[in-house]
Amino acid sequence: TDWLKNAEFIVEIVAEHERILREIESTDANCIGPTLRSVYDGQEHGLFMEKLDGRIRNHDRDIEKMCNHHFQGFVDSITELLKVRAEAQKLKSQVTDTNQRLQDDGKGLVSCMDDLRRCRLQQRNIATTIDRLTHCLPVLEMYSKLQEQMRLKRYYPALRTLEQLEQTCLPRAGQYRFCSIMAENIPRVRTLIKDTAMSQLRDFLESIRKHSNKIGETAMKQVCPLSRPLSPPLSPGRRLRKEAGLGAATEVDGHGSSPVTEQDSGILDVEDDEDDEVPGAQELVDFSPVYCCLHIYTVLGAREEFENYYRKQRRKQARLVLQPHSNMHETLDGYRRFFNQIIGFFVVEDHILHTTQGLVNRAYVEELWELALSKTIAALRTHSSYCSDPDLVLDLKNLIVLFADTLQGYGFPVSQLFDMLLEMREQYGEILLKKWNLTFRQALDQDNYSPIPVATEEDYRQFSSQFPFQDPDLDKLPFPKKLPFSEFVPKVYCQLKEFIYACLKYSEDLHLSSTEVDDMIRKSTNLLLTRTLSHCLQYAIKKKNVGLAELVQLILNTTHLEASCVYLEGFISNITDVPPDTANTTKLYGTSTFKDARHAAEEEIYTNLNAKIDQFLQLADYDWTAAQGGGAPSDYLSDLIAFLCSTFSVFTHLPGKVAQTACMSACKHLASSLLRLLLQPDVRQVSLGAMQQFNNDVKECERFARTDPVPGFQGDTLLLAFSDLRQLLDLFIQWDWSTYLADYGRPTCRYLRVSPHTALVLLEKMKDTSRKGTMFAQFRKNERDKQKLIDTVVKQLRNLISAHQT
Fold first, then answer.
1. CA torsion, points 751, 752, 757, 761, in degrees to nearest 10?
2. Residue 752: its pLDDT value, please?
């Protein structure tokens, strides 16, 4: 068994060695390592080496057999090669000789070829150099052009040149050091151009801010109606600058030229032109900095930044322009400067709006205008409220109209300005009323309250031209003669027309219809009549120390002024071209004004006349206990009657009703004052003598009444004023108590105007006198009976009073 096992093991080893040998024979030498390693890892290394040596001997025998088989052919080949050797040596000698001759013959050619090679190399280098220079020269030329444009401050073309240099020329030139330097310098140049353009824009903004007054003044001159007709403001299609600063509407050409002439920013010429022609407001301004900066920022991709900066700065300038000076209301020049600056600001904005694409839009300009309009109206309302000079207000109105018309010519809505002017009209009217109030008062204070003497026909025509007065009777009288009114009348009438003219001047250019102007003037005139002139007349009537003659003349003056109202109506209709009979036409209240003043003067006459009567009555000095009365009236009463006669003689020019009323009022007041004087509580006793003296005074008053001091009374109408006194005195002097008591209460009673109360008061005073023996002295023997009679009368009077009260 062991032997079988060994035999099997040997067979396996032999087979394994055979396999390894086959692998060695068939495998690449680089991969034989693992196969040999398996041999060394085994235990039969010696056996394998024996097997390997046997295989090597087998291969050596195979190689020897093969060499023996081919050896004869090899020998033959060597023999033939030796035979060729001599021929090859001969051929080599011939080739060497031929090569030597060829070398000798080709030395000149080689030398020429070397020269040709060098020339071709030079030509190639020259062509390369020319090609490189062809690409580099445009760069240098473009850079030189850029430097020249920067020196001439042509920044927009310089920016275009810079863009062409960067995008076209430098990439073609190649990688050269100077190109790298230029490429590194391009951002700095761009920044320099951007900063310089912004600096010029700032200078431009500062310049137009300083010269906005001049720009606005020029724009207002273009539409001023007082100057000769001028061309209207440039339309949006014609608003490009002419040769002075903007030229025609130039465009950006292929060489990158600026859209406007490259000039410095600001105002071209702000000096006054000596020529008659007024230049356009835009022609004063060089807008090239704005356009240049706009195009530069657009090319640099920073247009939005530029637009925001421009609008922000202009808004700041707008706020500065819209801040009026605190003393602007003092002179018209202050308002004019304020308006000129606003117009100058918006003339520039309007031009920018129509000559740039999107720098400012319509909404932005409208926003600024709404702000300016509200600020302007607020400033005008504030400052105009301090103004008290109507001429200044009128000039301001005309300036505002010119301001509105100028801006309206540029397309800005100005209806609110005209609405404000209508509001200012009320203020203007109040100022006029104050001025005319002083004028009327001055005319009243300077008036002599005397009829105007006219010495010649020329003087008469002069006054007739000032005041519409017609009196055929006066025309027939010879010169010299007197007009019925004082100088106050023509003065007032002329001032009324001046006031109407002043109102008309304010209404001009307000785009109002004739009917509206007519209504405005009539309402203002009515205010002047009903408020101002009426107050002045009341002032003249109510002032202290006004005399009756002055009041009489005032009545005459107001009568003639009332008659002239119809002429004022016609005057207003003529200047407004509105017929007076037009529907809804406001009527003048002059008639009622002068009637009221006349009535007030009449009442003042009555009051003053009564006051004069009271002054005379204060001089009365009756001896109420006198035993016997005098035969003549009292001195104070004689003076009073003389005063009344002279006063009523002045009333001849008054309307009859006024004079009659004044006379009747004076007589009634005199009668009532005499009765109060008789019945006053301070008079405790009245004697029969005093009663007789009082009766004499009343008779004097009755005599005055019978003289008809004022014509027009019928019969004894004026005597009725003294009838109460007459009946009372007759009752006591005639002692007719039986008739009084018997007929009391009947319509036909003789003493109808004597009241029981009045009779009782006077009887009580006479009763006290009789007790002291001052009355009825001749009846002392029958004193008891007489006293009993008085007591009986007193008792009956008291019964009548009690019955009347019941």
1. -30
2. 87
Q: How far apart are CA 126 and CA 121, in angstroms?
A: 8
| Residues 104, 100: Cα–Cα separation, whole Å | 6
- Residue 483 bridge partners (DSSP): 452
Given a contact cutoff of 8 angstroms between Cβ atoms, the answer to whether 157 and 258 are in contact is yes
> How does the average pLDDT of the chain come out, rounded?
82
Query: Could you give the CA distance from residue 21 to residue 17 in angstroms, rounded to a whole number?
Result: 6
| Calpha distance 643→125 (Å, rounded) | 143
pLDDT of residue 272: 45
Distance (Å, whole) CA 367 – CA 241: 26
- Pair 662, 710: CB distance under 8 Å: yes
Question: What is the rounded CA–CA span in Å between residue 645 and residue 707?
Answer: 10
**Enclosing H/E stretch for 238:** none
Q: Topology of domain 620-805, per CATH?
A: Methane Monooxygenase Hydroxylase; Chain G, domain 1 (1.20.58)
The pair of three-digit structure tokens given for residue 66, joined into one six-digit string: 């093969």
Tokens 């003789």 correspond to 750
C-alpha–C-alpha distance, residues 393 and 185, integer Å:
64
Contact (CB, 8 A) for 619 and 677: no
> Maximum CA pair distance of the chain?
236
Would you state the structure tokens that stand for residue 436, as one six-digit string? 């005319």
**In whole angstroms, what is the distance from residue 303 CA to residue 309 CA?**
10
Q: Which residues contact 172 (CB under 8 A, 6 or more apart)?
A: 135, 138, 139
Measure CA 655 to chain center.
55
β-partners of residue 482 are: 453
Q: Are 362 and 352 in contact (CB under 8 A)?
A: no
Which residue in 273, 270, 250 sits closest to 260, CA to CA? 250
Q: Please, are residues 585 and 578 in contact by the beta-carbon 8 Å criterion?
A: yes
Closest CA to 717 of 774, 660, 790: 660
Q: Supply the pTM of this predicted model.
A: 0.67
Tally of CB atoms within 10 A around 703: 12
- CB contact at 8 A, 728 and 669: no
Average of per-residue pLDDT across 47-69: 85
Return the SS3 of 28.
coil
Tokens of 272: 């006054």
> What is the Cα–Cα distance from 434 to 440, expressed in whole angstroms?
10
Quick: pLDDT tens for 629-679: 777 888 888 999 998 888 888 776 676 578 888 888 999 999 999 989 888
Region label for 120, one of left (φ > 0), alpha (ψ between -120 and 50) or beta (otherwise): alpha
Q: Please check whether residue 621 is in contact with residue 590, taking contact to mean a CB–CB distance below 8 angstroms.
A: no
Supply angle C-alpha 191, 194, 198, rounded to 5. Answer: 140
State the Cα–Cα distance between residues 168 and 138, nearest whole angstrom. Answer: 10
Q: What tokens does 293 get?
A: 């900066």
**CA nearest 283: which of 245, 255, 335, 313?**
245
CA–CA dist 784, 780 (Å, integer): 8
The crossing angle, in degrees rounded to 10, of helices 155-164 and 177-210 is 160
Residues pairing with 402 in the sheet: none
Beta-bridge mates of residue 481: 454
Task: Report d(CA 490, CA 462) in Å as an integer.
Answer: 10
As a whole number of angstroms, the distance between CA 346 and CA 412 comes to 9
Peptide bond between residue 229 and the one before it cis (omega within 30 degrees of 0): no
Pairwise CA distance, residues 257 & 145, whole Å: 13
335-348 residues labelled b (16+ CB within 10 A) or e (exposed): bbbbbbbbbbbbbb
Residue 1, C-beta contacts closer than 8 angstroms, at least 6 positions apart: none
> Are 20 and 38 spatial neighbours (Cβ–Cβ below 8 Å)?
yes
What DSSP line would sit under 520-535, residue for residue?
A: HHHHHHHHIIIIIIHH
Looking at the predicted structure, is the pLDDT value of residue 317 above 70? yes
Residues 346/281, Cβ–Cβ less than 8 Å: no
CA 143 to chain centre: 55
